[in-house]
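Hi, here's the filled form for the chain we discussed.

Project: internal
Contact: R.S.
Residues: 300
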Amino acid sequence: MGEKWTAADLPDLTGSTVVVTGATSGLGLITSRELARVGAHVVLAVRDTARGAEAARSCGGSTEVRELDLADLASVRRFAAGWEGPLDVLVNNAGVMAIPQRRTVDGFEMQFGTNHLGPFALSNLLLPQITGRVVSVASNAHRRPGVDIDFADLNSERDYSPWRAYQQSKLADLLFVQELQRRLTRAGSAVTAHAAHPGYAATNLQRGTGSALQRAMMTVTNRLVAQSESMGALPVLYAATQDLPGGSYTGPDGRGELKGHPAPAVLSDNARDPERARRLWEVSETLTGVAFPFPLPQQQ
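And the returned structure, exactly as it came back:
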């Protein structure tokens, strides 16, 4: 990628429209702020519209706030149904990490529902309006040994581990991007799908584990190891704006992809498996009731 890429290298986005989910804090807020700074009209898609309004005021530029709860498929459908006109970029940023066992409004395990099923439904419902790209925020946690999609227990009903559920949901995000790109290509669409991860960035996401011990450990680790939220947002901004091939995956260029400037990131073998991606897609369509909106030619 040549010179180290920074937010100062963002192109002029005047006239473009971007939706960023989970934009009230952390990576989502910084992504929204930087995109608004270079001229994009940024829609902050958030659960708490009061906090969203405060975040929008801090962004400057052209912004608006719309309600969206990815843990509620009815909310996802309302958001998509209310959308009019073209949408250049959708940034699927919102998520939860390693939380105590909870269920979404629709009864799904909260991390699988919020991190994968909600964005899956949102992306497919908005695809007819999307003109540019879909960007999903993933995690290098998907590469931990043994991380896979447990198709026999997607909702962790038999056994629940906060970290294992998180890792599964992040692997699901990457499989979604790979399969979405394959389907877009088959459909002859110019829209592209991309993934990015922030490395180890100090964000509010780490405060929701429900474990005082884990929060204390992360506080110390954040001070010693983590990079800033601003640096963590760079791969997302890069994936949202740069000339990249469909299916790209961007992360930090430092050791272990923990920190640094945007560079190609490594997918696990499971994340590259088209059969896993196809199967997960079909299951996700069944669970959400949302399907890929474009006709696909018959495969030979």
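Let me know if anything looks off before we file it.
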